[in-house]
Amino acid sequence: MAKVLILDQSKSVRNILRERLEYEGFSAEAVENEAAASALCARIPFDVILSDTKCKVPDAGIPFIALSADTSIDTAVKAVRNGAQDFLTKPIDMNRLLQSLHRTIDHPEPEQAPPAAPAMRSRRRTHPAEAERIIGISPEIEHVRRLIDKVAPCEARVLITGENGTGKELVARWLHAKSARAAAPFVEVNCAAIPSELIESELFGHERGAFTSAVKQRKGKFEQADGGTLFMDEIGDMSLAAQAKVLRALQESRISRVGSDKDIEVNVRVLAATNKNLREEIRRGNFREDLYHRLAVIVVRVPPLREHAGDIPALVEHFIRTIAAEYGSAPKAIDDDALADLQRMPWSGNIRELRNVIERLIILSGDRITARDVKEYC
Asked: Which of 2, 230, 322, 348 is buried most deeply by CB count within 10 Å?
């Protein structure tokens, strides 16, 4: 179970975040100042800290996500410069927060590390041996695998669609891993997790002095992914202004940093993902139709878990093994009737929800996981 420390001066914010995170399967503690946070960090190995920008984050080597009611670009840039893995504005969008938490816990290295850093180079390269397996033998999952095998070797752009928690990022990683660009960078950007005023700088970079907090030149995601693959997650949440700039980058294979009039050529394969119906977003005027056609050369739909419930036993076995390994314990057995109960559940949170449930059952069950455990804890 991932451990989260909430650092905020507001008691109501602390209570709301703690209750919601515990409901989502996290272990959460909440404090109001740095001294209390430092004391807890000395006793508990937290995976991530959620900290209001008005608070000082303890120097404990723990990745943190900055929260602020100030939506200005200067505040966002300052937070990132100070080492924040992400910047979220208040009131907190819980879906964005959960996405940011999972991304930070899975990939704790700061994205601002120098390009030459070995840890960052290895993080941005995805090879078949390193990518997590796609679990399942259902016709729906086999169809996804066949599409990956056909599409990966070409340079076509791919739009990956599906509900939250279905595994869209995993599909993107395998498209990269099986492509001719596999030895080059795989760079991710979550378009929903970046404030609209910061997205242009995040994607295209900026020059020193481009705005108040731009104290040095910074390469954006397009430049970081040069020669490799750029995965733009939740592209449907991008503003229309940013969409126009992405469209130009795709059309001309060149970008310009914020504060510069110089064009930079980039050689990037773009993979995009969304949980929205982009055709409906186009009809509503929220998404550019010309950008949609640029991105959706190939569309890969990742099915929700309820459509391939037959894969749940294999997924459960996989999660039991991996979670037990993380905890340094022996894998628990699970009864057949418990598996049957799990297969009948609706799984609105899909595979991500299933993993959280299995972790909860491993912690709270006895020597084995029974149907009674499933009824009591799910």
From this structure: 230
Long-range contacts of 192-195 (CB under 8 A, 24+ apart): 192/95, 192/96, 192/99, 192/233, 192/234, 192/237, 193/86, 193/88, 193/96, 193/99, 193/100, 193/103, 193/234, 194/87, 195/71, 195/73, 195/76, 195/87, 195/89
* H-assigned helices in 253-370: 278-283, 289-295, 312-327, 336-344, 350-364
- DSSP H or E segment with residue 248: helix 240-252
Structure tokens that stand for 310 in this block: 């037959």
Q: Reply yes or no: is the peptide bond before residue 108 cis, omega within 30 of 0.
A: no
**Which residues face 28 on adjacent strands?**
4
The answer to whether residues 85 and 63 touch, using CB atoms and an 8 Å cutoff, is yes
> Hey, which residues does 334 pair with through a beta bridge?
369
Average pLDDT over residues 129-134: 65
- Dump pLDDT digits (tens) for 143-195: 999 999 999 999 999 999 999 999 999 999 999 999 999 989 999 998 887 77
Longest CA pairwise span in the chain (Å): 65
What ranges make up the beta strands (E) of the chain?
Answer: 3-7, 27-31, 48-52, 64-68, 86-89, 158-161, 186-190, 229-233, 254-255, 264-265, 269-274, 298-301, 333-334, 368-369
- pTM to 2 decimals? 0.67
- Model pLDDT, residue 107: 59
